Amino acid sequence: MQTVTLKPRMEIMISVEAENISPDRFAGRTEKEIQSLEVWMGNRRTTIGELFSVKVEGEGGSAAADTEIIMEGDFSRVKRIGEGMTAGSIMIKGNVDMHLGAKMSGGKITVAGNADSWAGREMKGGEIIIEGDAGYYLGSGYRGETCGMRGGKITVLGNALDFVGEHMCGGEIVVKGNAGLLPGLSNNGGKIIIGGSTSRPGSEMAKGTIIINGAVDEMMPVYRQEGTEVVDGVTYRKYTGDVVVNGKGLLYVK
Amino acid sequence: MELLIKNGAVYDPINGIKGDKTDISIKNGKIVDKVSSRALVIDAGGRLIMPGGVDAHSHIAGAKVNVGRVMRPEDTRAGIIPRTKITRPYTGYTVPNVYAIGYRYAQMGYTTVFEAAQAIMKARHTHEELEEIPIIDKGALTLFGSNWPTMDYVREKDMDKLAAYVAWGLLASRGFGIKAVNPGGGEMWGFGKNVSGLDDVVPNFDVTPAQIIVSLMKVNEMLGLPHSVHLHCNNLGKPGNYKTTLASMELAKQVKPSKDRQVMHVTHLTFNSWGGTNWGDFESKADEIANFLNNSENVTTDMGQLIFGSATTMTADGPVQYANAKLLHAKWGNGDVELEDASGVVPIFYVKQISIHAIMWAMGLELALLTKDPYKVLLTTDHPNGGPFVNYPEVIALLMSNKKRQEEIKTLNEAVHKRTRIPGIERELDFNDIAIMTRAGSAKVLGLLDTKGHLGAGADADIAIYDIKPDQIDPSVEHAKIKSAFSSAAYTIKGGEVVVKDGQIVATPAGRTFWVDASVPDQHTDIMMKDIRMKFKNYYSINLANYMVEDAYVTHPNVVRAGVIPVTAR
């Protein structure tokens, strides 16, 4: 197992595009090689080594699966961490900016702090755990995309903002706290479980499941009530819809 | 500037050269008989040389292309290449930005591309984009099929006024030829309706699509335009529409060509060779269309080949796009162009396991393989309706290799066996056929043979050299090599300048825009303009003065003269 530890060398004020921070890019590379990988800071091309201190421990071979990345400090202006990763792990002891783990297909990302919007966008597999809060569009499809998250699992221990799992086609999102407006908007598969409260869930849902354990501030008037059903030992009111799109989505509200 | 290309295996169908080692001499952007000893020499080393590619039907510029870009930000993200010292950034796959369009065509060895539909009212937009497309020469066909003045003059049977309107419309739009899209139907879509056949009467105008098509063909030949009428048939996108297509092609017999070319070009046959009566018994009737083509002289077509994966359908056929959006539950862009036409844009994803898509894939290929004369079927994908133009090399490989087709058929929905004839077709096209379908034929159909589509003296020095040696390759077996060679030209030479080397852009000169200046007697124009002024006063939302494309919009023009007055008398 190769462990790579990154720490910011400075307070990062301008956003950084860091899709190169990924076990797939780091695997089998020396400290020097990792330092020379490209990142963009604003409109300036720079390197990982210039922005972060890099420490490599252990031998990992060339497989991403044997690569662990530990990031210590504040990464709240660092975007696209773990984009497209297929295996390995990233542990972030701090906050991160947008597009965390976008399009990832395997491996695991853990954030001890908060993640900004679009975390797990269009992800196909693997796991993301956000111990703090998530921003908007958790596990969604980016602008124009008709399929958001397709597989894998995202767990948020805190709250999430609006549009959780928009255009979701598969996989699972668990938000332990509250979710903002319109979770599961236009989704077409997958499962969303919300521990706390939310509002207007499942609008334009064609397929998929949404389970809400807290309060629903406002229900969309496009769901058909189908009595009650017990899911995992808990009794929920069951709804199907969105009838406007002939949807076969399932909405469970406690 | 002189250039000599030696040792190439040249395919130049117009001049009857089929793979012979022929030297090509270039001086001042033109092909000449010989050059001096100071000429720069390119040694082709036995590799394949063809005239620069010519695409007679592609949607590369204008309002609907831009609607596609706006609707599909996800497509823009699919093809990003950052700028370099030479090239500006590339974006997009089905709806690329203007720069990527020019670069990608040049990288495939194409040097001339025609936008297949512009409404006069939107022509300024078209030309703003055309001017920004680097390297390639281009032009745009102007929509006349549903315009109010067209239908008025057809009803009045006043061919002089119609000719004057067409000539003025080409000037107003800086257009190259007459395009008709679902004639009559585009206008009816403005009232939420459509026409369902050639003899349906368009309400308020009291004309039929058949009358519109025949009148436009007559006027096209009166004016002696370089290209013929370019027709997108009625009923496109409906099962059973092959009958309408055949009936439309039959109309071509009523008109004699004024030049050595067809009188009607029926476009993207993948979308209108459909048999059956509904989506359940949908089948290919491309064989019937090919049979018609084999027994007629006045009609040409193009494939509009379907490519599996992402595509963006865009057309002036507004009603068909409404039906598509409903059927596919897809995003729908709808446009109304006042007194001229309608339009619609819908993204689509073609899937190998969907029977209708698999059958459509077969139709384009059947048409090309069952039609004996390659001059009658051009290679297109109706970019980006059937798929993006960057897939032409895939189509070339499919046409040249039965083995590749059979491998592909194995991955498709089984309907391709029962409802098409493609599994049993063994014909494999050769390099000469491909040169016709992608160059010589397209130039002939467009009426550009004096300068495009061949390598004889006097032609533009637009040349593609591909990294294959025709005498050492079996395209049937080595189809992957064919595809990769046509994807990335070893050299593309545009107007005597090397613009692509080893698949990379090395220079980005501006291309020219071809448009037709057709003359008609002044008195005809004068009477016609009275009607036009009335239309602007009563109906148009803009002023006539803000309508015409001005010279400032076309900064690299190439004007082709035509008209009812002989050129010598002017």
UniProtKB/TrEMBL annotation, chain A:
Q: Is Transit peptide there in the keyword field? A: no
Q: What is this protein called?
A: formylmethanofuran dehydrogenase
The biological processes this protein is annotated with in GO are: methanogenesis, from carbon dioxide
Q: Could you tell me which pathway this protein works in?
A: One-carbon metabolism; methanogenesis from CO(2); 5,10-methenyl-5,6,7,8-tetrahydromethanopterin from CO(2): step 1/3
Its UniProt entry gives the catalysed reaction(s) as: N-formylmethanofuran + 2 oxidized [2Fe-2S]-[ferredoxin] + H2O = methanofuran + 2 reduced [2Fe-2S]-[ferredoxin] + CO2 + H(+)
Q: Which SUPFAM superfamilies match?
A: Alpha subunit of glutamate synthase, C-terminal domain
Kindly list the GO molecular function terms attached to this UniProt entry. formylmethanofuran dehydrogenase activity; transition metal ion binding
TrEMBL record, chain B:
One GO molecular function term? oxidoreductase activity
Q: What are the protein's UniProt keywords?
A: Oxidoreductase
UniProt-listed Pfam families? Amidohydro_3
Q: Which InterPro entries does this entry report, sorted A to Z? A: Amidohydro_3 (IPR013108), Formylmethanofuran_DH_asu (IPR012027), Metal-dep_hydrolase_composite (IPR011059), Metal_Hydrolase (IPR032466), Metallo-dep_Hydrolases_sf (IPR050378)
- Where does the Amidohydrolase domain start and stop, copy by copy? 41-500
Q: Which domain of life is it from?
A: Archaea
Q: Does the keyword GTP-binding apply?
A: no
What sort of enzyme, by top EC class, is this?
Answer: oxidoreductase
Q: Has UniProt tagged this entry with the keyword Oxidoreductase?
A: yes
- What's the Enzyme Commission number for this chain? 1.2.99.5
NCBIfam families xref list: one_C_dehyd_A
In Swiss-Prot or TrEMBL terms, this protein is called Formylmethanofuran dehydrogenase, subunit A
Q: Which organism is it from?
A: Candidatus Methanoperedens nitratireducens
